[in-house]
Design goal:
The chain is an alpha/beta fold. Helix content is about 40%, strand content about 10%.
């Protein structure tokens, strides 16, 4: 029987392998730093000091203030905190987003429309997965108090948003700007002094850190208020006893990601380039969804392909890959078990291509060219079997 050790993991957009050094650091803190950071005795003060040191280091990576970093349980909570408080407390009455955002944004915005009667505008998405910036500019002419929520890197097709351009447009039109940067933090540098974002969401498990911990960047004096009540932790923005070892894991993983950013980008980009070339050569009738094969317009960490397989064979294709020991995804891992099609691909693909299997492969420093060659060979065999 095949074991996980025999498998090839290509679902890093869903979650990443935790670095060994991060695990060691977390284990050390779990063992020796168990005081409650809200306690006034020495154990508590020691824990508090660790948390604040982590906060300062994390903020420094983004040229932000330590007070602007609020620890959360992950990206979904950070998105909810920003969006819900923006409407409830900042009196935002208009949210501009797209239909290809993560459901942490889409479902939250939809619920806010029901509860508060806010209006929602969706920026048009081009066939290559990029947004129509001219349409965004038009939507920003609204006289309502507006918040724009657009993800930095799309989690399914990898399209990169021009953060600077959108931030400048928002600033010109007196709109707030929130970005779900879960797929980009730890993979791209973001200078929050140069790019005037108001809010940002991040999650540690996307850059080789632990699950269940992330943060929201909330620009100073924004006026955001807590979503979770019950304590004064996180300067009153997020109640609940801090998970010290998780915060340490986040800090360590983020520091290592940015310390090794150039070399690891080069390494993973080479893997993606090789994979794209092999797929193009070995399965020429395959299509790349969006512009994910373009390293200038999409992230270096993933590709999403539409395979030349009939609709009759499509439902079992991902299962067959799993049986072959290949871990990948038909879309966002948050929805891949739901049986529903991808809401992202539904916006950019034809009806004919939506009937075919589309698969997302996402890479990390722990992958190799040998693995990718093996995956291409298996894909080629499966495609040939279903079309012969």
């Amino acid at each position: 029987m095949r074991t996980l050790m025999d498998s090839i993991y290509l679902d890093n957009a869903a979650t990443t392998q935790v670095r060994d050094v991060v695990i060691d650091k977390m284990a050390s803190v779990l063992k020796s730093c168990y005081g409650n950071a809200s306690s006034t005795h020495g154990f508590g003060r020691s824990s508090k000091s660790i948390i604040e040191s982590c906060r300062k280091r994390i903020a420094a990576h983004f040229n932000a203030l330590a007070s602007e970093i609020v620890f959360t349980a992950g990206g979904t909570e950070a998105d909810n905190l920003v969006l819900q408080s923006a409407v409830r407390d900042l009196k935002v009455t208009h949210i501009i987003t797209t239909k290809i955002e993560h459901h942490a944004v889409l479902h939250t915005v939809a619920q806010l429309a029901i509860e508060y009667g806010i209006s929602i505008s969706y920026v048009e998405v081009l066939s290559n997965g990029t947004i129509d910036y001219n349409h965004l500019e038009t939507l920003l002419k609204s006289t309502k108090k507006t918040l724009v929520s657009l993800m930095h890197v799309n989690n399914e097709i990898g399209t990169i948003l021009d953060l600077q351009k959108v931030a400048d447009l928002c600033q010109t039109n007196a709109a707030l700007f929130h970005t779900d940067s879960v797929q980009s933090v730890g993979h791209y540098p973001i200078d929050l002094q140069k790019i005037p974002l108001d809010f940002l969401a991040a999650s540690a498990h996307k850059f080789h850190g632990p699950k269940g911990i992330g943060f929201a960047y909330i620009r100073k004096n924004s006026g955001l208020k807590p979503q979770i009540l019950g304590g004064t932790q996180e300067r009153g923005i997020r109640a609940g006893t801090e998970s010290i070892h998780d915060i340490v894991g986040l800090d360590e993983a983020l520091s290592l990601s940015y310390e090794n950013l150039d070399s690891e980008i080069t390494q993973v980009k080479a893997l993606k380039s090789y994979f794209v070339e092999e797929l193009t050569t070995q399965i020429p009738s395959l299509k790349f969804n969006g512009c994910c094969n373009d390293l200038d317009q999409s992230t270096y960490t993933l590709v999403n392909v539409c395979l030349p397989v009939s609709a009759a064979h499509a439902p079992m294709f991902l299962f067959q890959l799993d049986l072959k020991g290949i871990a990948c995804s038909k879309g966002s891992a948050c929805q891949s078990g739901s049986g529903k099609g991808s809401h992202v691909l539904a916006e950019i693909l034809s009806e004919e291509d939506l009937m075919k299997p589309s698969v997302r492969f996402s890479f990390s420093i722990y992958n190799t060219k040998e693995e990718l060659k093996h995956v291409v060979d298996i894909l080629k065999d499966l495609v040939n079997e279903t079309t012969s």
